[in-house]
Amino acid sequence: MCQSGGVVSIGGTASTTAVLRVMNERAVFAEIFKLGKVSRPELAQATGLSKPTISMALTDLERARLVRPVGLRTGSTGRAALLYEIRPQAGWVLAVDVGREFVRLALADLVGDIAARRDEHRKGGETPDELVAWLGGLTRELVDEAGAALGDITLTVFGTPGIHDKETGSLQLAPNLPGWDRPGAIELLAGVAADAPYVVENDVDLAAVGEGAYGLGQGVDHFALVWIGTGIGMGVVIDGKLYRGAQGAAGEISYLPVGEGDPLVNRGRGMLESVASADGVVALATRLGMKGVTSAKDVFDAARAADPVACRVVATEADHIAHALAGVIAVLDPQLVVLGGGIGVQAGDLLIGPVTDCLRDLVALRVPMIKASTLGTEAVLLGAMAVGLTTARDLVFERAVAQVPPD
Amino acid sequence: MCQSGGVVSIGGTASTTAVLRVMNERAVFAEIFKLGKVSRPELAQATGLSKPTISMALTDLERARLVRPVGLRTGSTGRAALLYEIRPQAGWVLAVDVGREFVRLALADLVGDIAARRDEHRKGGETPDELVAWLGGLTRELVDEAGAALGDITLTVFGTPGIHDKETGSLQLAPNLPGWDRPGAIELLAGVAADAPYVVENDVDLAAVGEGAYGLGQGVDHFALVWIGTGIGMGVVIDGKLYRGAQGAAGEISYLPVGEGDPLVNRGRGMLESVASADGVVALATRLGMKGVTSAKDVFDAARAADPVACRVVATEADHIAHALAGVIAVLDPQLVVLGGGIGVQAGDLLIGPVTDCLRDLVALRVPMIKASTLGTEAVLLGAMAVGLTTARDLVFERAVAQVPPD
DNA sequence: CCCATTTGGCAAGGTCTCTTACAAAGTTCC
DNA sequence: GGAACTTTGTAAGAGACCTTGCCAAATGGG
């Protein structure tokens, strides 16, 4: 609606016939991704281009080693059609989830199939250099296992807690990753995968992307993933795209002024986080007199067994979450809110009902759907893959078209 | 990042040479908007196209009556260049701000110059039919004044309170516009400007667009306009575009759970709204013992004269606003927050300092800039104009290119 | 008054895509 | 098993677009 430079302006990029060809090849490439194994006539149908043009594009794409023929489709009447598909080895994406207790890595080919993966327990407290060396070793194992080479990796996507400050190249608000708040620390990550391009993204943001690509957010334009576990965060998807905010801090709802308590008391932790996170649940249960509670799961199990105190804790938790969501919904008006993270996944069945009920009193219009994530602990890794795949597909095409135009 | 149908996909639209021409003409058209009076060589430079192509595009655009020559640029060495500009009469935009006490109308030509406008006092309580008839009459006056015809209006943009529910064609949450909550009522607005296309947008959303096009939001990608007056609302601009939300209710922050008070007590009004709006300020001042206070302005004037009670009211108001903004900032992480509406404009000088200070204790990272709107009561009308102009420019081009391709 | 400089127009050439036509390779039916 | 039919793939010709290169026109300065 508005543009820099004062007033509004319509878009439009000038082009010549040469870029027309690139555009069409890109369209064919994208269509093959969408349709899988596909014949020339089907591509002509899908893109609106003529058969000869499709043939031209395919020979170019095949010479660039982006697609390959995979046999004939026979059975129906008429001549058998030669089928084409994306060449999976045309690109590799390394997805890395650097969590509090685990690191998870997945190496996926360009069509998104995971060729190799690892889940490793963290000792905790590793220095940045140690962590990078460790991840680098795991990456080499994965690459070997997949039958690829380290240099084949098109793009690496790291999911980490905290906020990636691009100006200083450091990680803010990530107490579980000591040493990464040093200016320039992020650049160390280039060493994990042989200086391939890499992206660092907030873990909860990636979980939201994962939810949009593989989970409940599929086909939903605007939704939010609220992550409730040891910490609290939110990933926002708007118009099908991850929204990061001006500083990359969109969705940092741990600081929402919710629940009783002086804001100044809980400085540095965030008000919502201190009352609604896993620790908050345990603390409240203990305060109300439950014995032997060490984890939030204990409380939820007790609530499922109809323990009256545990039920009160769950009700309070639902109330806190609902009040936080009321703010989110008022600002964003999403179509869907997904609850993820340890508490969201484990206790989704207990919470969704009371949260939704409570929201009816707090929200002006219709309450959006509230659902519990189905991706579990995979959400961040899948989100990293999804981000990596979209970017890698562009990168691979760009590179191929830039290098192979002659002849 | 994610698409319906399962997984991510790169874009790309297939095209033929014919659409190439349209693309280039659109690019030239857009460039003339950006540069104003401009010569052929300048357009060639700006678009990257060659001189003959520019000439071709210009003859087409001139034949479509979208641009016109405006004389020669002489003075420098070399042959004088023939300058072209947008033909202002190629399109007209009618902007209408239907407020609580006033209606404001502006008729702008395609380059955005206001050719005629009206500010009229509302009697209040008009039926939809009466309102439409009144607006229709005013529109005819404007059109006459501008030397245009009613059929020349390319697009009408209405700014109203409430939420335009497109499914039922009615207006929700707009108590000041009785009768417009009836299903299909919105369609009556087509009668204002002879069945020209029209758009109905929330007034605060339009104010945000106006701020982005003509005010403090120029060149800012992500910002929010918080409107504080008789009611409270917010317009959200993300990636330079207005964000409406799934139901068109994004930014309905009047229901934020802020301030003391039972949520159930203030149902239907919104908690934030009841404490922070103009009425809330007056109520608080009276409760604290101020005499003869009838409007929020009285309180702010007294505060400027260092009245201690008024100062306390202002401090409380700042505190409420800051708490609301804390939620907005946590969710959206905007680069800038603009305070608009009666209170935002009148008392911006008093509020911005304390609000910013208070936010430092409530926000995780850097506090975004907080500024008071400079557009005053014009914001909604200017936003309607901005929305209308972008859309009208596309419409006019589309129409011209669709009609004049032969020869 | 002549020259350097810039602008505008025209013709030729190259690239892209589409349409049309035809050859190639299956299936169906007798 | 073979003929007819249907679908696929390729080749040639034509149309549309943009660009390069060249020349005429117009303006200011010396």
Topology:
The structure is a homodimer of 407-residue chains.
Chain A (H helix, E strand, L loop, with lengths): L16 H19 L2 E2 H8 L3 H13 L3 E7 L7 E6 L5 E7 L3 E8 L4 E8 L6 H19 L6 E8 L2 E3 L4 E3 L25 E5 H12 L8 E6 L3 E7 L2 E3 L27 H6 L1 H10 L8 H9 L3 H25 L3 E5 H6 L1 H15 L6 E4 L6 H25 L4
Parallel strand pairs in A: 4-7, 7-10, 11-14, 14-15
Antiparallel strand pairs in A: 1-3, 2-3, 4-5, 5-6, 8-9, 11-12, 12-13
Helix pairs in contact in A: 1-3, 2-3, 5-12, 8-9, 9-11
The first copy, chain A, binds a DNA duplex (30 and 30 nucleotides) through helix 1 and helix 3.
Description:
2 copies of one chain form a homodimer. Chain A has 3 domains: 17-86, Arc Repressor Mutant, subunit A (Orthogonal Bundle); 91-207 and 380-401, Nucleotidyltransferase, domain 5, CATH 3.30.420; 219-374, Nucleotidyltransferase, domain 5 (2-Layer Sandwich), CATH 3.30.420.40. Helix content of chain A is 41%, strand content 20%. Chain A has 12 helices and 15 strands. A 5-stranded mixed beta sheet of chain A has the order 6-5-4-7-10, sandwiched between helices. In chain A, strands 13-12-11-14-15 form a 5-stranded mixed beta sheet. In chain A, strands 1-3-2 form a 3-stranded antiparallel beta sheet. Chains A and B meet through helix 1, helix 5, strand 12, strand 13 and helix 9 of A and helix 1, helix 5, strand 12, strand 13 and helix 9 of B. The first copy, chain A, binds a DNA duplex (30 and 30 nucleotides) through residues 15-18, 20-21, 24, 39-41, 49-53, 55-56, 72, 74-82.
